[in-house]
Amino acid sequence: MTDFSPRKGMTDLEIDETIEAILAEATLEEKVAMMSGQGFFQAMAEDDRVWCARPYRAGGGLERLNVPALYFTDGPRGVAGGQSTCFPCSMARGATFDTDLEQRIGEVMGIESRVNGCTLSGAVCMNLLRHPAWGRAQETYGEDPHHLGEMGAALATGIQTHNVVATVKHFALNSMENARFKVDVRIDDRALHEVYLPHFKRAIDAGCASVMSAYNKMNGEYCGQDRVLLTDILRGEWGFDGFVHSDWVMGVYHPYGAAAGLDVENPEPIHFGPKLLAGVENGTIEPEVINRACRRILRVTYRFAASEDPVEAYESALSAAPAHTAIALEAAEKSAVLLKNDDVLPLIPGKVGTLAVLGKLATQENTGDEGSSKVRPPYVVTALEGLERASERLGINEIVTADESDLDATREALTKADAIVVVVGNTAEDEGEFIPGDIALGADVPEELRSEAQRSTVGGDRDNLGLRQDQQNLIAVASSAGKPVIVVIVSGSAIMVEEWHESVGAILQTFYSGMEGGTALAKLLFGEVSPSGKLPFVVAKSPADYPFFDKGAERITYDLWHGYTKFDREGIEPRYPFGHGLSYTTFDYRSLKTLADDKAVHAQVTVSNTGEAEAEEVVQFYVGAPGKALERQKKLLKGFARVKLKPGEQRLVSVTIPREDLRYRDPLTRRWQFEPGEYRISCGGSSASLVETTVAL
Ligand code: BGC
Asked: Model pTM?
């Protein structure tokens, strides 16, 4: 038997030769077997249906010849296997606008994936937040393609540093949950390329070596077997040379998916396997389709296996190691968005003798969705625990608690409070991955596999974009006490605040803030760190301001307009604009300058900390195109940077915006076009508070 085990340090040439030798020795059946995951259903049954309790074999692998398989673990708020670090959810991390931090988070996920024996990570979720009701909004970074691309590319780079293949998911248009297995998303070429795909391309350009297809259809075809997406765009237009695998069960419906560009069916051979083999044998599928897919899978597998590891040994002590949980804390500190502050925050250490902490969520380990993104950390610091642990340091003598289940007890508790913190929002009951218990897994799924494949979770898309009535009642009671009230919102995306925002002193959105969320909360409320998160989406005053959404849709049209571009176009005033987030200091922006050459616009601005507190600021650069050739978005985020400034300190912040990022997709020629003319460049700490200049390009 020939031994094809990969060796560290193999050159690309050696890898190519090895792959050809494997393809020459492997039988057709063995090659087809490499094109499917295997053992998932059995593992789920044996593991009491605990998702990712062990690594899943997700393609590749040929034991007879010592060819390694790919072993999958999920994300994105950490590594789904083992006792891993639980970071704030992706949407929270989106609010950090901190690509350096996101890359370090990726490195931790890479390390902890390896500790768990995994070489393929499903942590890079980059679907665009088209509507805040999307149940899995928490798994992505926000509504803006540029921002999504930068954050996802950073995470993928970090993960791949440890020779774990990052798969970018779900390709494409997977921005609603309950209907994901059936919905047909209708979209034209321009909206697809300008709004729903650029972030995927950005991650692939950064080296992301794998793509997970989406469940939904695009223009009538399931994405897992769509030649336009998987071959014409991904390989043809973008030059992607990695492999594509399907989402889990119901990601592909026919062996011709392989010819369309799907290389691996996950998690089991349902439509590939024997059916694909038969297709080749009866001549409906070209043998080259199989060789091509195997080459792609093997090339990635061997390149990663041959590359030197930055860590000598991925020992179990590395999982949730103190250095990793410290990064989870940093992310929680940087992601909280201060939506409103009427001089209530920061609370002054030593001045709050009795603090009331209200709400069921204050005592709950509430790290987010219970579906595939669930992480099992060794501990979670709740909001209440975070404040209790910090109470001595912060001079709090007593913490009183109560919740929405007993408003009389709440009133009573509030009598002695000096300040009131109310923790409200969502849990996995309200939003998250949704797999209905009676789901039909496609006519061809063997009966015995069905029950194993059916995970049922609560969650799904939200019907209510506001807070539950009992939580609003709790806020009302808190507000009537005549004390400073701070509302802390836990949620995966926008919560509408119209009914109650005027009655409270401050609102801090922490999202699902991970295993160190409570620790961060105490530091944020008492000014040990200034909030610096910025909204990666717009918060509306009315649900009608968002695009049409129907969680049961069979068919839906996605166009160019959603989020802040839609609000700008229609002149709608948001409650909180995209990019908004207050601080304990103030920043001044001046002297915005641009310099253009034939490749890029270089923009710079001077930012000063004009207040009393040291703080970080997310400097945002937006561009408005001339829009003479055809209607363009009024402004689009095209660059951002995070800076830390001491009181009185000032810093020059600059970004380079490539001209190709300013192009539009011509609907007639289906090509990218650059429109010469006058461009508006604006800059500020939110999309609504900007200094502006123009540049002729
Ligand atoms: C989810 C994917 C996930 C996969 C494997 C699917 O149901 O849609 O995001 O990666 O399960 O866990």
From this structure: 0.97
